[in-house]
Amino acid sequence: MEEYSKFQFKGFKIISSVIERNDNEPSKKISLGFAPKGFINKKDSNFQLHLGVKIEDENKSFSIEIKAVANYSFENKEGLDNLGKFFYVNAPALLFPYIRAYISTLTNLSGFEPINLPTLNMSGLGEDLKKNTTEL
């Protein structure tokens, strides 16, 4: 019998993208910040992740802010509570590769040297996402 995931990634959209730069000398050292929010609709077995991402370099020569929305479905038999920490950690982890690719393409097409973000362990976002999740 085929086993399938208790929740599934259904797709994403970039809803906001801002890139600014000035004449300061760019630095190779960048900071990366995340602002996760979630919305659960138990009736429809859907979850929506709103993920804000901010990137800037040490010299403040550029700033990139992106807001993405990703949609997920989950099995409602056991309820989202039983998915627990696994869900809150993995929802951003499933979205992040798309954000990485978008940032690389955006910077490359904007005349920047492309910014290739490393693969990250997103487990630190799990608690923030859980705290910032609202049931609809």
Describe this structure in words.
A five-stranded mixed β-sheet has the order 1-4-3-2-5. It has a single domain (7-135), classed as Bacterial Protein-export protein SecB. It has helices at 84-109, 125-131, and strands at residues 7-21, 30-41, 46-57, 62-74, 133-135. 24% of the residues lie in helices and 40% in strands. The chain contains two helices and five strands; from the N terminus they run ββββααβ. The longest helix is centred in the C-terminal third of the chain and has 26 residues, at 84-109. Helix 1 (84-109) crosses helix 2. The chain has 136 residues and is an alpha+beta fold.
In a few lines, what is going on in this structure?
By secondary structure, this protein is an alpha+beta fold. It has helices spanning 84-109, 125-131, and strands spanning 7-21, 30-41, 46-57, 62-74, 133-135.
Strand residues, percent: 35-45%
Distance between the termini: 34 Å
Taking all Cα atoms into account, the compactness measure Rg is 17 Å
CATH architecture, please? Roll
Q: List the domain count as a whole number.
A: 1
The topology string of helices and strands comes to: EEEEHHE
| Named CATH topology | Bacterial Protein-export protein SecB
Q: What does the secondary structure layout of this molecule look like, with pairings?
A:
Elements: E1 7-21, E2 30-41, E3 46-57, E4 62-74, H1 84-109, H2 125-131, E5 133-135
Helix pairs in contact: 1-2
Question: Main attributes?
Answer:
24% helix; alpha+beta; 2 helices; single chain; five-stranded mixed β-sheet; 136 residues; Bacterial Protein-export protein SecB
